[in-house]
Inverse folding.
């Protein structure tokens, strides 16, 4: 078990979200797309310039920028 | 049930909402705007048992907060118009996330029917959904459908109509948000009910929840209606919010979202969803993505696709464009024959026919471009392009999705800003969209290209191709830098979150593509067309009136007669020698002298007209850039369409109207004119590239930005910017010795 920020995760790595440390519009956007504590995510890949990042969440694919991923804490098994 | 019952269609983007709407209403639909905003309002009719049901397609949203216009529009519609029922379309293969919006409908208490779309896709992914159980647990009907093939939609509508017929009151469900919030909510709800605070529109608990979420719109309405109660509620929110932050490091808004997902999970876990395969299993879509967003292949494929779209649009639209040109030439010919020479004929030929031709000239472009964009959008590729380009565009305060409008507008030289401006609709965030909208016209569109080709041929004849390529790069650089400037000044603000879905690749339906294309095209003709025609006539009038005074016209007539009489004898002699009088030396000489007189008269008339006077007056300013009155008039004419710069220059230099495709003669004239030195040439090129967009583009900016303010801004700002740049270039070039 290790805690790390979503930005530091590698391709194909999976984990479970433990915290989303932001409110306001960005926090709302992140949460309403299903990125809430308890959700399992897998890094699917990164854009050619390493940013944004694509994740698999609940059977779908989401993208977010690295500086947005910085607010998401993940627990890696 | 009244025959005009309203049923709203709501759901997430990419859930197949538009497909279902098209399937239900077919061609019986109507597109408008919600008052005051640029969000589209689509309405259509569905016929069942001889009653006509109005179906309103709400904008696709993930939530019902006050953060985006789409969400505000959707919930205002639900709250104010209280539709008889709402069909909530959900993607069965992505149910958990889709139910987040459903949750909020249930909390509003609105009569709901859930359409479980794409059950076929879910099935192939090994997802089985017990819809009866889901229905029992949520307390609303759940109907499985496949919107694409229409399967289950009749069933869905029967159920929706049945729900609408009940005409029952709204019955909000109560979801628990944890002890702290629940206690505060109850207290707030009590106060709200006691004073009937906003309850004629919203359920009391919902208002309380919005106070906890710090919903800007509800707070504003609340303060207006009852200041003291509103303040009381805000204070309560503050207390519980401080408490949450201290004890759990979280916000009420976050707690609510977390608990909503908790509620969804608690339902799905009761054997509603049966997942046969691993959730992370890669499907065809993911395999395609591996290739298409690959670090090296991805950008290559993307440029290939965008270039393909560009070629598709501008190559194929040439065919109908050719037909239209032929038609308008034919029409012009008829008018030319029927009407006597004079003002009326000129109005019809240069004002109306050219104006209508100008309006319709964009139609094939818009049709093909929207067809192409609809394919990219509906298939899911556009989201990938945005994903790959975002890092670069973000530097300039734009969004990954800005790439498409820039390319279409002339990012590959020769596009058109009108469809480019319309293409900004794929951008969902307002500030990024406005910044894109205002800078796409800096690209080298197809109308600027012949003008730039002429000027580069005059001044840089040796390496023209290279200069033209550099000008394309310059256009990109300026557009992006100006976008950055706008985002730092008039459009300043944080960038909109990029959190976005990459929907699975899908084959677009042909019906959807056609409806989409037709809608956009018709909107353009209806809304922009009339204004463009009006301005075109106005510009014609400016360049025609006031006409030359009678004395001057008589003077030109006199000159003509002198020429005719001076050649009369020679031509009569030629008549005796040959039948082909027109090719005799005397006749040819006479002809060319007459043409020269016509040219001189056209030049005099142009200078005498209002536009000519403005152009002459502008010399007071344009000495800074080295432009004379002839150039100024041509630039004024360029506001109608940039290629008109060439024909107006021709008239101003007594050459008659010059065809943009045949500029040899004009090129020589300019090259031999001492005023047209390289310094002035460089300044002029820069000015033409960046000054006000043509008015067709301006009208489209007004339509898309939702106010005349931005149209006016683009004209004034761009012209000022271009002029400053041109003046700097001219003065610097003179200083460096390019004035000779």
């Amino acid at each position: 078990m290790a805690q790390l920020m979503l930005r530091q995760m590698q391709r194909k790595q999976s984990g479970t979200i433990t915290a989303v440390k932001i409110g306001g519009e960005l926090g709302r956007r992140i949460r309403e797309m299903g990125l809430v504590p308890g959700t399992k995510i897998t890094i699917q890949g990164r854009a050619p310039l390493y940013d944004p990042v694509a994740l698999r969440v609940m059977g779908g694919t989401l993208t977010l920028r690295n500086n947005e991923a910085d607010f998401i804490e993940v627990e890696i098994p | 049930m009244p025959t005009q019952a309203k049923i709203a269609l709501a759901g997430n983007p990419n859930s197949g909402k538009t497909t279902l709407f098209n399937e239900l209403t077919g061609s019986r639909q109507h597109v408008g705007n919600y008052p005051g905003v640029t969000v589209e309002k689509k309405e259509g009719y569905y016929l069942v048992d001889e009653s006509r049901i109005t179906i309103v397609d709400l904008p696709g949203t993930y939530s019902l907060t006050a953060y985006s216009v789409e969400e505000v529009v959707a919930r205002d519609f639900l709250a104010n118009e209280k539709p008889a029922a709402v069909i909530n379309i959900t993607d069965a293969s992505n149910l958990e996330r889709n139910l987040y919006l459903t949750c909020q409908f249930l909390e509003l208490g609105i009569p709901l029917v859930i359409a479980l779309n794409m059950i076929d896709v879910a099935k192939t992914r090994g997802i089985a959904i017990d819809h009866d159980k889901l229905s029992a647990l949520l307390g609303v009907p759940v109907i499985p459908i496949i919107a694409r093939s229409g399967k289950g939609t009749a069933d869905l509508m029967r159920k929706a109509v049945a729900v609408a017929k009940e005409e029952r009151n709204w019955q909000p469900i109560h979801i628990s948000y944890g002890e702290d919030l629940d206690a505060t909510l109850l207290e707030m709800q009590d106060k709200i009910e006691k004073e009937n605070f906003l309850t004629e529109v919203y359920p009391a608990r919902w208002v309380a929840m919005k106070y906890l979420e710090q919903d800007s719109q509800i707070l504003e309405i609340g303060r207006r209606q009852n200041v003291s109660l509103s303040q009381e509620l805000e204070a309560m929110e503050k207390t519980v919010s401080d408490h949450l932050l201290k004890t759990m490091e979280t916000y009420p808004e976050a707690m609510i979202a977390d608990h909503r997902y908790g509620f969804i999970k608690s339902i799905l876990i009761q054997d509603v969803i049966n997942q046969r395969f691993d959730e992370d299993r890669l499907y065809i879509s993911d395999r395609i993505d591996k290739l298409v967003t690959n670090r090296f292949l991805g950008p290559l494929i993307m440029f290939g696709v965008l270039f393909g779209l560009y070629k598709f649009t501008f190559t194929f639209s040439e065919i109908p464009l050719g037909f239209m040109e032929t038609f308008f030439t034919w029409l012009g010919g008829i008018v030319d024959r029927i009407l006597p020479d004079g003002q009326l004929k000129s109005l019809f030929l240069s004002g109306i026919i050219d104006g209508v031709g100008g309006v319709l000239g964009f139609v094939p472009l818009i049709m093909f471009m929207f067809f192409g964009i609809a394919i990219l959008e509906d298939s899911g590729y556009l989201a990938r392009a945005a994903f790959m380009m975002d890092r670069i565009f973000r530097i300039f305060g734009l969004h990954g999705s800005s790439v498409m409008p820039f390319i279409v507008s002339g990012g590959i030289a020769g596009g058109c800003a009108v469809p480019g401006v319309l293409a900004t609709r794929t951008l969902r965030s307002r500030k990024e969209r406005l910044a894109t909208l205002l800078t796409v016209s800096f690209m080298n569109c197809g109308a600027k290209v012949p003008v730039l080709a002429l000027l580069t041929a005059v001044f840089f004849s040796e390496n023209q191709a290279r200069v033209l390529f550099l000008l394309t790069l310059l256009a990109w650089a300026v557009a992006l830098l100006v976008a950055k400037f706008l985002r730092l000044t008039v459009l300043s603000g944080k960038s909109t979150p990029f959190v976005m879905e990459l929907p699975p690749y899908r084959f677009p339906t042909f019906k959807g593509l056609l409806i989409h294309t037709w809608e956009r095209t018709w909107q353009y003709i209806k809304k922009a067309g009339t204004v463009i025609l009006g301005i075109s006539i106005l510009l014609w009038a400016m360049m025609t009136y006031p006409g030359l005074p009678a004395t001057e016209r008589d003077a030109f007539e006199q000159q003509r007669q002198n020429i005719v009489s001076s050649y009369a004898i020679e031509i009569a002699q030629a008549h005796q020698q040959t039948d082909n009088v027109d090719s005799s030396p005397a006749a040819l000489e006479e002809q060319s002298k007459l043409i020269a007189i016509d040219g001189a008269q056209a030049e005099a008339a142009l200078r005498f007209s209002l536009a000519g006077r403005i152009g002459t007056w502008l010399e007071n300013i344009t000495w800074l850039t080295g432009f004379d009155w002839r150039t100024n008039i041509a630039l004024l004419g360029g506001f109608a369409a940039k290629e008109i710069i060439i024909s107006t220059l021709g008239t101003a230099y007594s050459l008659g109207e010059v065809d943009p495709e045949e500029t040899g003669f004009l090129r020589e004239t300019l090259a031999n004119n001492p005023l047209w030195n390289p310094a002035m040439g460089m300044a002029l090129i820069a000015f033409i590239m960046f000054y006000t967009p043509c008015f067709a583009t301006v009208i489209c900016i007004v339509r898309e930005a939702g106010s005349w303010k931005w149209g006016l801004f683009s004209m004034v700002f761009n012209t000022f910017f271009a002029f400053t740049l041109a003046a700097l270039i001219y003065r610097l070039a003179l200083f460096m010795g390019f004035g000779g």
Q: What stands out?
A: Chain B has a mean pLDDT of 89. Chain B has 31 helices and ten strands. Strands of chain B lie at 6-11, 29-33, 40-48, 51-57, 85-91, 112-117, 127-129, 142-144, 273-275, 500-501. The domain at 6-166 of chain B is CATH 3.40.50.300 (Rossmann fold).
